[in-house]
Amino acid sequence: MNRRLLPRLLLTPAMATLFLWMIVPLVMTIYFSLIRYNLMQPDQTGFAGLENFEYFVTDPSFGAAVVNTILLLGSVILITVFFGVAIALLINEPFPGRGIVRVLLISPFFVMPTVNALMWKNMMMNPIYGVLAQVWMFFGAQPVDWLTDHPLFSVIVMVSWQWLPFATLIFMTALQSMNHEQLEASRMDGANYLQQLRYLYVPHLGRSVAVVVMIELIFLLSIFAEIYTTTAGGPGDASTNVTFLIFKQALLNFDAGVASAGALFAVVLANIAAVFLIRMVGKNLDK
């Protein structure tokens, strides 16, 4: 057999799987975004051009969804990076039971998003019997209905709690690779902990921070389960993000054309963010 042909034959199953799994759905989404296709009106299907895209971006909920998406992404990333670095630094030094503490800190990342949302909704944020309500009443304060009064903040807390272990794990791994001789030398030169943090720890964690931000940003663009399970995008559009808006167009309004246009908008947004962050990570790695 031709030596040049064999590698291509071996790659064929992987390429075929990639084609069926990614390319075909993408092409179908582009097709549906260009036609009028409402499941409640199947007899009115026809070419729509860019009409679906215009309808999606002029939806009264679109502006709020984009703002909520940006706030959700930015808040979760800031919380997970800041507290992830802090926790990683705290458990980096040896202490009794460090192995058990590490396992407990990482475990929330393996909880399914729906289970995570239900736990926070019923166990923590319920205004009658939730843990936070009991704490409020213990101090004589009126319990807060978090999901009604502060819906987006509640979703941010839920998502941050689940993604914080991921950031902590990445930062813990990075700290294990630090040059301990350099740390010892800085101590001998009289550097205190804050100076070590500024000039040694933070620069060393720069690459890890870039990686965490890139991965979280890509995945957090598709946050849905927490919103659907707890607030359903409400009250009003207070906790609706772009992903949930696409869901409403597809499964509540039964408009597959507009939903497909929204999905393409989300794909373009995710790719722009990914390209920007990959370049940022590349520059960081070159330093």
From TrEMBL:
GO CC, one annotated term: plasma membrane
Keyword Transport: yes
GO terms (BP aspect): transmembrane transport
UniProt entry keywords in alphabetical sequence: Cell membrane, Membrane, Transmembrane, Transmembrane helix, Transport
InterPro entries: MetI-like (IPR000515), MetI-like_sf (IPR035906)
SUPFAM superfamilies, alphabetized: MetI-like
Localization per Swiss-Prot or TrEMBL: Cell membrane
Signal peptide extent: none
Topology relative to the membrane: Multi-pass membrane protein
Pfam family, one: BPD_transp_1
Transmembrane parts of this sequence: 9-34, 70-91, 103-120, 152-175, 205-225, 258-278
Main localization category: membrane
Domain ABC transmembrane type-1, chain residue ranges per copy: 66-277
Entry annotated with the keyword Chloroplast: no
PROSITE patterns xref list: ABC_TM1
Family, as annotated: Belongs to the binding-protein-dependent transport system permease family.
Name of the protein in its database record: Sugar ABC transporter permease
UniProt organism field: Acidovorax kalamii
